[in-house]
Design goal:
Length: 383
């Protein structure tokens, strides 16, 4: 197949970028692949990009030029916020080329993209014609202009029928798929949205477990890091924290003089995987919906690491109490402690870890996920 893949990088690297790169790398092994990428800028250049977001003529010209040069069988869009914009879908379909789009986040439903605002889930935009409340609240980066601009861009292209031109949408979990379907939008149907998870490829060497719990992720409000720190601070549970983010200083200040919590900062992939393979269990206290199961959880079950996690979003679809892990309410200190205690007292740890690893082998390996993606391409092209 001749596959053309489009992606818009944010100003800061994220999980969407990693998925884009690893899928391109794998597809190139068996197919002819070309990519076109955009990158969000800062300053006046970023302002110009954002003003052009609803109908970016420059991005459309770039797409048109590469389509003429490459003549692909199919186009896969990962992200178009905001340096490229959704109008490029119309440019592609003018040439009658099939389009697949991965829904990495919830921007189709709310300009926040995360369905998270002021340290809580924010679901009020779902099912609305135009998210005026979200605009008033400035749910996107506390900016009226950014929130309104994003809302207007998606609203206008819904009215123009742009998203109905997409042949298949890919979500990262069954939970996300159901959430999109619940919005009752004309371009989302049981046939148009498929589940295609992200894959993780790691070595699964058995390591001797050490006496510490591990948190890996962005140090931000939606990841629930402060709830976890405040719960475990001064307890007999040792916690190591890997990551960086806007709450780095707050976490550091909160654990000054605290002996049982260690802030390691950002670590490389290899060192992080070593810490994961040796920890007693991985703690995942996220307080927001994620597009799919967090990659740290998939890496955890791949390395046969016990998972003690939040009960929010897509996670309970994978982590089932006493079957594949342990769950807690991230807003309740007692629930977090209870889940940890239940884990420590469980005589089924080995079986639960094996069950979770079996799910990894059957669902999240590179070969399985890439086969799913290629089958989607083939069906869409055949149609």
């Amino acid at each position: 197949m001749r596959i053309f893949i489009i992606h818009n990088f944010y100003q800061h690297a994220g999980g969407e970028d990693m998925v884009f790169r690893q899928e391109v790398q794998e597809l190139k092994r068996h197919h002819t692949v070309e990519t076109l990428t955009f990158r969000n800028k800062k300053g006046w250049r970023g302002l110009w990009q954002f003003l052009a977001y609803p109908w970016n003529l420059s991005a459309q010209r770039k797409v048109k030029k590469q389509l003429q040069h490459f003549n692909p069988d199919i186009v896969h869009i990962h992200n178009f916020h905001y340096a490229s914009g959704p109008a490029l879908i119309r440019t592609i379909k003018k040439r009658r080329i099939p389009v697949v789009m991965t829904l990495h986040n919830f921007r189709m439903l709310c300009p926040s993209a995360t369905l998270f605002f002021r340290d809580r889930l924010y679901l009020d935009s779902i099912g609305t014609n135009f998210p005026w409340k979200a605009v008033r609240l400035k749910v996107l980066e506390n900016s009226f202009v950014k929130t309104f601009g994003t809302a207007f861009t998606y609203f206008s292209h819904r009215k123009l029928g742009t998203f109905q031109l997409v042949d298949r949408f890919l979500t990262l979990s069954a939970f996300s798929r159901q959430l999109f379907l619940s919005a009752d939008l004309p371009f989302f149907s049981a046939d148009s949205i498929l589940v295609k998870p992200n894959f993780v490829e790691v070595e699964t060497k058995t390591q001797e477990r050490e006496d510490y719990y591990l948190f890996v992720g962005r140090l931000s409000a939606e990841k629930g890091i402060m709830q976890l720190v405040n719960t475990l601070k001064g307890s007999d549970k040792v916690l190591k924290i890997v990551g960086d983010g806007p709450l780095m200083a707050e976490v550091r200040n909160s654990i000054q003089g605290v002996r049982n919590i260690e802030l390691l900062g950002q670590k490389g992939k290899e060192e992080t995987m070593q810490l994961l393979a040796k920890c007693k269990a991985l703690l995942v206290p996220s307080v927001c919906y994620e597009g799919g199961v967090p990659l740290t959880i998939i890496e955890g079950i791949a390395t046969q690491t016990p998972i003690i996690s939040t009960n929010i979003g897509a996670i309970p679809g994978l982590i089932i109490p006493n079957q594949t892990g342990w769950l807690f309410d991230p807003y309740k200190r007692e629930s977090i402690l209870s889940a940890i205690t239940e884990f420590e007292n469980s005589d089924k740890k080995d079986d639960i870890v094996k069950n979770a690893h079996a799910v990894y082998r059957s669902t999240f390996t590179k070969d399985i996920v890439m086969q799913q993606l290629e089958e989607v391409y083939q069906k869409v092209i055949a149609k």
